[in-house]
Amino acid sequence: MEMKKTFASICLCLLLSSHAFAASSRDDLQARVDAAKVVLDQILNAQDRSIPLNILHQATCVAVVPGMLKGAFVVGGQYGQGVVTCRTGHGWSAPVFIRMAGGSFGFQIGGQSTDLVLVAVNDRGFQDLLKNKFKIGGDASAAAGPVGRSGQASTDWKMNAELLSYSRTKGLFAGIDLDGTSVSQNKEDTDVYFGAPHDFDAVLKGDVPVPEGAVPFVRTVAHAFVSAHHQ
Description:
By secondary structure, the chain is of the alpha+beta class. The chain has helices at about 1-20, 25-45, 55-60, 125-130, 155-160, 185-195, 200-205, 215-230, and strands at about 60-70, 75-90, 90, 95-100, 110-120, 135, 140-145, 165-170, 170-175, 180-185.
């Protein structure tokens, strides 16, 4: 029995590693952007189980990691890839690509796919996403995001959180503690998607046009956050 568990853990670890280091094609990256749009569509259409309007209204950046893999080994591990867009002076930016890894939330035997959403709620959170790498709960303060579109969210997070974190598993959307999870820039994928090298700083500040394939994702974010401003 122990041999089977060990073998299963090794297989899952190899699976996570293959996702971590496999090269992404332009089609792979477009599929990731499309998946991020679907995740946001489903969350934002969840009525009273969505992100509160006052958080949408003041968000500076949104990161979506669709289908993050996680599993339990001796110490646990998880890995996911996602996209980020940030508010600019003229709308929302083109997306850049990020990796998320580590942490210790929600481990269980066997793999499980979870959608993750990070919302930067002030300029400090925006600056975190311009860093090459940072750790949630260490380099960046974060809190489990409140849920409830119709009601006003608790204002506690305004005092000490740079990022609000959410998870969605099997349709259940809730705030989640991501302390210990590292977030790093995926420059290779970002360069492949744009077809040329670009600094994260330039893209997220709106200096790079939104690629055609990313327009639906960016519009989904813009529509939700502009709508929140008028409610």
